[in-house]
Design goal:
The complex is a heterodimer.
Chain A lengths: L1 H7 L7 H4 L15 E7 L3 H4 L3 H12 L3 E7 L3 H10 L17 E5 L6 H10 L15 E5 L15 E3 L3 H14 L5 H8 L5 E2 L4 E5 L5 E6 L7 E2 L27 E4 L1 E2 L10 H4 L4 E2 L2 H15 L3 E5 L9 H12 L5 E3 L7 H10 L7 E6 L3 H6 L6 H13 L4 E8 L6 H20 L8 E8 L16 H16 L4 E5 L2 H11 L6 H10 L12 H10 L4 H5 L14 E2 L4 H13 L16 H5 L14 H5 L1
Helix pairs in contact in A: 4-7, 6-18, 10-11, 12-14, 14-15, 15-16, 18-19
Chain B lengths: L1 E9 L8 H15 L15 E3 L9 E10 L5 H11 L4 E8 L7 H4 L2 E10 L5 H13 L4 E5 L5 E5 L4 E10 L2 E9 L8 H12 L3 E14 L6 H5 L5
Antiparallel strand pairs in B: 1-3, 1-4, 2-3, 5-9, 5-10, 6-7, 8-9
Classes of the chains: A alpha/beta, B alpha+beta.
Protein name (chain B): DUF2344 domain-containing protein
InterPro entries (chain B): DUF2344 (IPR018768)
C-alpha cells in the first residue's frame, strides 16, 4: 500500500493532506499497543486540523502507554476517486494503516452537513455502514461532538455516541475495551452503556407519532433512561496538548489554540453551544501562561488564539493579555481573538493584542432591531454596536464585518429593515471617524437561522425556503444602494437540510444513507452541495423534508432527542421560549442571579471562575 | 549580521510541501531551534531567509539551497545541529557555511538543475528503442510545450535550448532511469515534468499510469559550476 500511495499522491490536489509526518505527530510501535484508536474527522484535513478537540484527545490518548490515536480525515473527491479506483482502503496518516485495522474509530460530529462524509469514510474503509452488520472483528465505531446531542439521524451507523466532553470518558472507554476483547459486540455495547455519557442507540427502541414527536421509547435493561452529558471535573487541571501537531500545509486556523474558558452562559436563545458546553469554567491565568509558553516552544507558531465561546468574558482578560504579551512579544509571537463581543471593551482589547496584523474586525449583533435581539436574548444594543465600531474605526481599522441571522422566530420585515439601517449607521460612524472613503467597507453577512435541539427554540419551525429566499432578496435590495456595503448570504437550501438533520429522528437513517449512495459528499461545501440528491433521497423513501424543517413541536411533546440530557432543564427552556415570545431578556448567571437553568444541581457541578476573585462582577464592570 | 548558506534535502512526506508552506515550515523550525534570525523592518516583520529555487510539489530534492541571515555569529555546525533537531520528518540540513561578503543571491545564481527520472513502461520496451528516442528527441531543432499564463491563456514555448543533457542511465525490466540537466532559475525556468511529457509524448513511449518519478539531484550555477564554490567563504 505504501508504494501505491507514493505513486498516487503526486497526482491528487494538496497531497500534504494525506502524508502525515508533521511536527509533533505521534507514531507508536503498533504491535506494542493494546487499544488503537483512529480519530476520524469527517471533513478535509485543513478543517480537521483546526479543531482543538482533535488535538486534545490526541494528546490524552497518546499520553497513555497502552493506547494510541492516529488521525484520518475525509479524502477530497479527487482522492476518493483514486482510492476507489486503486482499491486502496482509507488509511490513517501516522502509520498509514487501513481504518479496519483499528480497534476503535472515533468520529467527531461538528456539523450536520458532514454526516454523509461519515458514511463515506466507513465505506472507503471497507466497513459495513450499519452497526447491526458489524461484529467484534470490525472496529467499534463511536461518535461525539455537538451533533451527538441529537444523534438520531445517524442512529444505525454508529455503535455508540459520546455525549459531552471527551477528555475523561475516552479513558474509561479504553479501559473497558481492554477487558472486553473476547466479548461479543453486543456484550461490549451493553457494558459501554453503563458508562455515564455513552448512548448506545441500538438499546433504545423509539417510535414516533405522525407529527414527529416520540410515541414510545423502550430502553433495554442496563441502559439509562436518559443519557447525561459528561463534563470534565477539573477544567483548570484538565489535560491540554502541550505539543499539538503542527501541519505542513496552511490550515484554517494555523495557530496555537489556547482555550481560556469553556462554556458561555449569556443565554442566547438560538445558541446550542451555550447549552451543551455549560457550565462556564475558566482556567487560571497561571495555567494559561504556562500552557502558552510550552506550546510556543513546542510548535514554533507565531500566533496564539485565545479561544472560547466568548473570550472577552474571561474574568481577568486584560491582565492575562498583558502577561502573555510581556512574555512572548519579543519572540515575535502575537495574540489573536477569535471573535469579539459587541462592545468598546472588546475593541480596546483587540487593539491592544493585535499590534502586528491588521485586518477587519467582526461583530455579531445577530439581529437588526432591539425587539428581535430581545427575542433571542442577545444582550446587545445599537449603542453597544456603534460604540464598538467607532472604537474600531478610531483605532485604525477601516473594514468591519457584521453577522446577522435571518429567519429567526417571530421575525418581521421591519427587523430586516433594521439590519440595513444598522449597516448604514455603521458606515456613517466610519465616515464620522474620518476613515478614508476609498478604504471604508462594511460587510453584512446574513445566514439562515436553523433551529437546534436543546435550545429554547427547539420547538420552532424554520422559515420556509421560499420565505428565506424572499428575505434575502429583500435585504439585498435594501443594501444595493450603498456601494460601500457588501452583502453575503448562505445558500438557504443547505440551511434547510441542516435544519432537517438538526431536529431529525431515526426515520432519516435511510434518507442519509440514500443521499450518500446517490453521491452526496461534503454537503457543507457550497461547490459540492447538491440539493437535488437530497430531494431525491427523501422522495425515494416516501418522505418530505419540509415536515422536519417546518415542524412545530408543542411543549408536551416528547422530542426525538429528549433522552439525551444536557443538564439544562426542559422547564427552563420552556420558560425561555415563553420569555422570547414576550421579548423579555434573561441575564447571564455570571452576574450573580441564577436564572435556574437547572444544570448545576442536575450535574452536581458549579461554574468555575478562578480567573478572578469571586466578588468580581464581570458583566457590570465591563459593560 | 552574518549570512549563511544551507544545503538541505527535502524528501519523503516533505516533498509534498508546497513552496509557500516551506516558508512557513522553516519559520517555525527556526523559532523552535531558537536561531537568532534577523527580521525584516516594517509593519509586518518577517524572518530573513530565502530559498534558492522552489521545487515542484511532489518532487524530492537531494541537495537544495537556502540562505539565512542571523544577528549573531554561530558556527555552521551549530546551525546544522539546531535546525536538524527542529525540522519535521523529510527535511534535513546536510551542511551549512558562511557566505562570502557581497555574495549574490542564491536565487539569482542558480542556472541549471540535474534531475533523475524513473519511468515505468507498460508494456516493456527495449534499450535500443529508448536510446534512439533520446537521440532523436535531442536532434529536434525545437521542442514546443504549452504553458498556461496567469490569465489562463495558452502559450507555446520552445524548451529545446534549455535541455542541456538527457541520458539513459539504466534500464531494468519495465523501468528506465534517465538523467537530465535542464535550465532552472530566475532567468528562464523549465519544469522537469514538461521535459518528460514532451519526450515521452513525442516518441510515443508507453508510460504506465502514475509511472513517472522525478527527483532533483543537484543545482548548479552558470556553466554547471558548483554553488558552494561561488558562495562559501573560506574558513580561516
Amino acid at each position: 500500500m505504501q508504494r501505491t500511495l507514493e505513486k498516487i499522491l503526486p497526482h491528487v490536489q494538496k497531497p500534504a493532506r494525506y502524508t502525515g509526518g508533521e511536527w509533533n505527530a505521534v507514531v507508536k510501535e503498533w504491535h506494542d499497543i493494546d487499544v488503537k484508536i483512529a480519530f476520524a474527522f469527517p471533513d478535509v484535513y485543513e478543517v480537521g486540523m483546526s479543531h482543538l478537540g482533535l488535538q486534545i484527545l490526541y494528546h490524552v490518548v497518546n499520553t497513555r502507554g497502552d493506547a494510541l490515536m492516529e488521525r484520518v480525515f475525509a479524502p477530497w473527491v479527487d482522492m476518493e476517486k483514486v482510492l476507489r479506483k486503486g482499491g486502496i482502503p482509507l488509511f490513517s496518516l501516522e502509520s498509514r494503516r487501513p481504518l479496519g485495522d483499528f480497534d476503535i474509530i472515533a468520529f467527531t460530529l461538528q456539523y450536520e452537513m458532514t454526516f454523509t462524509n461519515l458514511l463515506n469514510m466507513l465505506d472507503l474503509a471497507g466497513l459495513p455502514l450499519r452497526s447491526s452488520r458489524r461484529n467484534r472483528n470490525h472496529p467499534l465505531v463511536i461518535a461525539g461532538g455537538p451533533c451527538a446531542f441529537n444523534p438520531e439521524p445517524l442512529a444505525d451507523f454508529a455503535d455508540a455516541f459520546i455525549i459531552g466532553e471527551g477528555e475523561e470518558i475516552i479513558g474509561e472507554i479504553i479501559d473497558l475495551y481492554k477487558v472486553s476483547k473476547g466479548k461479543s459486540r453486543l456484550d461490549l455495547l451493553k457494558a459501554m452503556a453503563g458508562i455515564r455519557g455513552v448512548y448506545v442507540p441500538s438499546l433504545y427502541h423509539i417510535q414516533y407519532f405522525s407529527d414527529g414527536s416520540v410515541s414510545s421509547l423502550a430502553v433495554e435493561p442496563g441502559a439509562p433512561e436518559k443519557v447525561v452529558k459528561r463534563v470534565v471535573s477539573d477544567f483548570d487541571g484538565a489535560p491540554f496538548p502541550q505539543k499539538p501537531v503542527v501541519p505542513y500545509m496552511g490550515v484554517v486556523h494555523d495557530r496555537i489554540m489556547l482555550e481560556v474558558l469553556r462554556g458561555c452562559t449569556r443565554g442566547c436563545r438560538f445558541c446550542q453551544a451555550g447549552v451543551i458546553y455549560r457550565p462556564v469554567r475558566e482556567k487560571t491565568p497561571e495555567t494559561l501562561v504556562r500552557q502558552a509558553e510550552d506550546m510556543v516552544g513546542s510548535t514554533g507558531h507565531d500566533e496564539i488564539s485565545l479561544t472560547s465561546l466568548s473570550t472577552a468574558d474571561y474574568t481577568r482578560i486584560k491582565p492575562l493579555v498583558t502577561e502573555l504579551l510581556n512574555r512572548l512579544e519579543h519572540k515575535g509571537v502575537g495574540i489573536s481573538l477569535p471573535s469579539l463581543r459587541v462592545d468598546a471593551f472588546s475593541v480596546d482589547l483587540a487593539k491592544e493584542v493585535q499590534r502586528v496584523r491588521r485586518s477587519s474586525l467582526t461583530f455579531a449583533p445577530e439581529a437588526g432591531t432591539q425587539r428581535m435581539r430581545d427575542v433571542i436574548n442577545k444582550g446587545v444594543t445599537e449603542e453597544n454596536l456603534l460604540d464598538a465600531v467607532s472604537a474600531s474605526f478610531q483605532a485604525g481599522w477601516h473594514a468591519v464585518k457584521l453577522y446577522f441571522m435571518i429567519g429567526l422566530p417571530g421575525e418581521r420585515d421591519e427587523d430586516l429593515d433594521g439590519i440595513a439601517h444598522l449597516a448604514v449607521k455603521v458606515l456613517q460612524a466610519g465616515l464620522k471617524c474620518n476613515v478614508s472613503k476609498g478604504r471604508l467597507k462594511v460587510t453584512v453577512s446574513a445566514s439562515s437561522y436553523v433551529p437546534k435541539a436543546h435550545t429554547a427554540f427547539q420547538w420552532e419551525p424554520q422559515d420556509s425556503l421560499g420565505e428565506l429566499k424572499r428575505k434575502q432578496s429583500y435585504l439585498k435590495e435594501k443594501l444595493k444602494k450603498e456601494r460601500k456595503i457588501s452583502f453575503n448570504w448562505h445558500d438557504p437550501e443547505t440551511s434547510f437540510i441542516e435544519a432537517v438533520l438538526a431536529r431529525g429522528d431515526r426515520r432519516l437513517v435511510p434518507v442519509v444513507e440514500r443521499a450518500w449512495k446517490l453521491g452526496a459528499r461534503f454537503d457543507g461545501w457550497s461547490e459540492l452541495f447538491n440539493y437535488d440528491l437530497w430531494h431525491q433521497a427523501f422522495r425515494e423513501n416516501g418522505m418530505d423534508p419540509a415536515e422536519y424543517a417546518y415542524r412545530r413541536f408543542s411543549y408536551e411533546d416528547v422530542l426525538p432527542w429528549d433522552h439525551i440530557e444536557t443538564g439544562v432543564d426542559k422547564k427552563y427552556l420552556i420558560r425561555e421560549h415563553k420569555k422570547a415570545m414576550q421579548g423579555t431578556a434573561t441575564p447571564d448567571c455570571r452576574a450573580g442571579r441564577c436564572p435556574g437553568c437547572g444544570l448545576c444541581p442536575a450535574l452536581e457541578i458549579k461554574p468555575e471562575l478562578p480567573g478572578g476573585d469571586h466578588n468580581f462582577d464581570p458583566l457590570r464592570n465591563l459593560l | 549580521m552574518t549570512h549563511y548558506g544551507i544545503c538541505y534535502s527535502k524528501e519523503g512526506p516533505a516533498r509534498f510541501i508546497s513552496h509557500l508552506d516551506m516558508v512557513r515550515t522553516f519559520e517555525r523550525a527556526i523559532r523552535r531551534a531558537g536561531l537568532p534570525v534577523a527580521f525584516s523592518q516594517g509593519f509586518n516583520p518577517h524572518p530573513k531567509f530565502s530559498f534558492g529555487c522552489p521545487l515542484p510539489v511532489g518532487i524530492p530534492g537531494r541537495e537544495e539551497y537556502m540562505e539565512i541571515e542571523l544577528v549573531s555569529e554561530l558556527s555552521p555546525a551549530e546551525i546544522e545541529e539546531k535546525l536538524n533537531l527542529a525540522l519535521p520528518g523529510g527535511i534535513a540540513v546536510l551542511r551549512s557555511f558562511r557566505m562570502v561578503d557581497n555574495a549574490p543571491a542564491i536565487m539569482a545564481l542558480i542556472d541549471s538543475a540535474r534531475y533523475k527520472v524513473q519511468i515505468d513502461f507498460q508494456p516493456e520496451i527495449d534499450f535500443g528503442r529508448i536510446a534512439s528516442c533520446i537521440s532523436h528527441f535531442l536532434s529536434l531543432p525545437g521542442v514546443s510545450v504549452v504553458r498556461k499564463s496567469k490569465d489562463g491563456k495558452e502559450k507555446y514555448c520552445d524548451i529545446r535550448k534549455g535541455i542541456f543533457r538527457l541520458e539513459l542511465e539504466s534500464l531494468q525490466e519495465n523501468s528506465a532511469v534517465l538523467e537530465m540537466v535542464i535550465k532552472t532559475g530566475s532567468t528562464g525556468n523549465i519544469r522537469p515534468d514538461e521535459v518528460v511529457s514532451a519526450f515521452t509524448g513525442h516518441c510515443g513511449l508507453p508510460v504506465a499510469e502514475y509511472g513517472v518519478y522525478i527527483s532533483r539531484e543537484a543545482l548548479y550555477g552558470p556553466g554547471g559550476s558548483s554553488l558552494e564554490s561561488v558562495l562559501q567563504k573560506k574558513e580561516e
